């Protein structure tokens, strides 16, 4: 027989209100996301008003190597896309109406890298024209800028660019036309024997081809793909001390719309008063959330400044090992709060513009049983490779030995290979030079 007993049990559960959840999310918002959210709320709530008027933005331009200061583009500035540029240049080709139709189709079929990806036979069938005519128009398209545009393969793209160069490129064209696979696989000795060229000549060809553009279509779209970043925080040195400044766009302030203040003093029990009271509570919550976000970000950045003081005063190679938990423990907050605070945020330092997450790195054991940061190890690794004998480049094992010998860093050959890959540095067999 089943016994049914009623028991009372006390449990503790964390219940996040909608407001608290939104406040947590607000901490991890980027500058653009935060301002967009405030705009949305201000459209719904007439009591919400921005305290600071719009000010001109200072942008920072992110390039492949670094981040540098740029200025706003003039109003009305536009970027010509690749397809429009090709059609504009085609005016000088004096194409017939039939050729214009083929050209237009080809231009529209070019991908963002600048390649024609559809088979010419398919294009000919789609336009009901002979394949030879498509081939002829494509050859004319390939004479346009940027060099290499309209190629059907990397091999053809490189050959088009080589033939445009003012210097003699017969050997390079020979290698690309007849021995492309060997060249791509960097099988230098086999290629040398097959092409009848010395290793030194192949090295010159490699240098020449390295300077070409494998994806010419990106040259026209570069303006649209540039990334402009406004730092959330700015750190500078004043009288030998580190100073922190917060961007007004990343940390906006709001104020109560003065027009509605008299309505808040009313004690009427009507729909209008209820509406104003509800919107006031939302305004109050947003104001508190923004202040909390500002305070948390300031505290997190302040602790990072303390932990990474040598970097801010001496240079980027001085970054110390640091974890999110260490910052969280020092501030008495949860690790996830620190994670949200640094996510997607940028800081302008005396040396560079970088993401806050850059200041957090794994600890690498050194010879004295202490620890150094992976950032510092990578800096040592890059310097060793920059200073190596290019005719006898250092192997990953030799690099591991030198890191231990010169810097007291104890890491394996496999870890060296991993860091080298992260730095986009090629293996020693490919770095080797012949002069």
TrEMBL record:
The keyword Cell membrane does not apply. One of its GO terms (biological process) is DNA-templated transcription initiation. GO terms for molecular function: DNA binding; DNA-binding transcription activator activity; nucleotidyltransferase activity; sigma factor activity. Residues 77-260 form the RNA polymerase sigma factor 54 core-binding domain. The keyword Transcription regulation applies. InterPro entries: RNA_pol_sigma_54 (IPR000394), RNA_pol_sigma_54_core-bd (IPR007046), RNA_pol_sigma_54_DNA-bd (IPR007634), RpoN_core-bd_sf (IPR038709). One of its GO terms (cellular component) is DNA-directed RNA polymerase complex. Transmembrane segments: none annotated. Keywords: DNA-binding, DNA-directed RNA polymerase, Nucleotidyltransferase, Sigma factor, Transcription, Transcription regulation, Transferase. Residues 274-433 form the RNA polymerase sigma factor 54 DNA-binding domain. Belongs to the sigma-54 factor family. This is RNA polymerase sigma-54 factor.
